[in-house]
């Protein structure tokens, strides 16, 4: 459970950093994401999940 909490904490740090460091650019990025078609977002999310699974696999080896 400690490891899981550390991982969640690191994800929050990595996810929060761009909003803290570049708030204006993040507003622009969010607007572009809103304008993207659903299929493109689904493909992007799927690729991110695959990369995440690969990283977890490599990290556990």
Q: How would you describe what is shown here?
A:
The chain has 61 residues and is mainly α. It has one domain (2-60). The protein has 3 helices and no strands. Helix 1 packs across helix 2. The longest helix is centred in the last third of the chain and has 23 residues, at 38-60. The chain is flat. It starts with a helix and ends with a helix. The model has no long low-confidence stretch (mean pLDDT 94).
- N-end to C-end Cα span: 20 Å
Q: What portion of the residues fall into strands of 2 or more residues?
A: under 5%
Q: Which spans of ≥5 residues are poorly predicted at pLDDT below 50?
A: none
Helix content: over 70%
Q: Using DSSP, what is the number of strands?
A: 0
Shape: flat
Query: How would you describe the oligomerization state of the chains in this entry?
Result: single chain
Largest sheet: none
Helices, by number, come to 3
Question: Which structural category fits the helices and strands?
Answer: mainly alpha
